[in-house]
Amino acid sequence: MKLDRLMWGIILLFIGGVLLLENFGVITFYWRNVWSFWPVFLIIAGLNILFNKNNSQTGSIISIGVLVVALSFLFYRGQQVPERGSWWGRQFKKDVDINIEHNNDDDDDDNNSDTSFNHLSLSEPFVAADNAKKTVLNISGGGISFNLDGETDELINADVKKKHGNFSLKKLLTDSATVLTFQMDDKKNKWNFGDGGNDVNFKLNKEANWDILMKLGAGEANFDFADYKVRTFRFDGGAAALDIKFGDLLPITDVIVKSGVADVKINVPANSGCRIKTKTGLSAKDFDGFEKLSDGVYETSNYKISTKKIFINLDGGLSNFEVSRY
């Protein structure tokens, strides 16, 4: 048996075994814990290429041994409860901060925990004359937790709680669009998985027609677009956690997600017809309420008759994709 097939077989058995144990409640597995170790798969792939060419039995044993040790570590790490201090658990920490904000006795402690962060507010005004155009929002960065924190009378407001990096918000007017570019200029921390990340809370104007294009090296995004007119949402990224909710205010919404290692949850309204196309490699898929039409194609039962439609394209190497209806 060829080494590459044997190694991929072991990886598939590992993923399938974890999913099976998790589905039966034998273990609780936190996939977000293992995303930061995704470079181990590059090491494994390199060993596979190196020893497969030489057809060395010793090399094959070494490769398989490294793979088994790495998967054993990931199995152990995945069962650990995520630390609240990491940017994966940042949202939980925010909820706690909100609950204790009105307790005067804890004000000093809360302020002290925030001393290592700098706050920055960026915004662009809403111009009614430009609203006939589409509004394109380009977002890029890494090691960031993004959240949608309600609406604003301005076109956009970004409240940044930063620990590193330089952030900017720029506006460009074209004949057909208002183009906003929000970015972090910090290449060194683009793939930062540590607990020193940044938080960005967006407020968006509900009158605008949004096209949102997001490039995220590593991080998380929690966007509830149910009350916003989002025509396009496109995500390109590496190791990330996405939790996105869409509404039915427009006749057509396009959702495109391309990821390396990600945990992706998408919520769509039940009265909208939805079609999913996937190209997902070793990714796990859970499409509740969808019918499988063919390999990689899924639809809701009301897709053909619905006047509101959502098209979802998913492309991931080793990710977890969930699409549900509400």
| Count of discrete domains | 2
Major beta sheet, specifics? 16 strands, mixed
Tell how many strands the DSSP assignment holds: 16
Structural class by helix and strand composition: alpha/beta
Series of H and E elements: HHHHHHEEEEEEEEEEEEEEEE
| Low-confidence blocks of residues | 84-115, 189-195
Radius of gyration: 22 Å
Which whole number gives the mean pLDDT?
82
Q: Can you give the helix content as a percent range?
A: 10-25%
* Distinct helical segment count: 6
Overall shape: globular
Roughly what fraction of the amino acids lie in strands? 35-45%
| Alpha-carbon distance between the two ends | 47 Å
Question: Quick recap of the structure?
Answer:
With 326 residues, the chain is α/β, with parallel strands linked by helices. It folds into two domains: 3-78, no CATH class; 118-325.
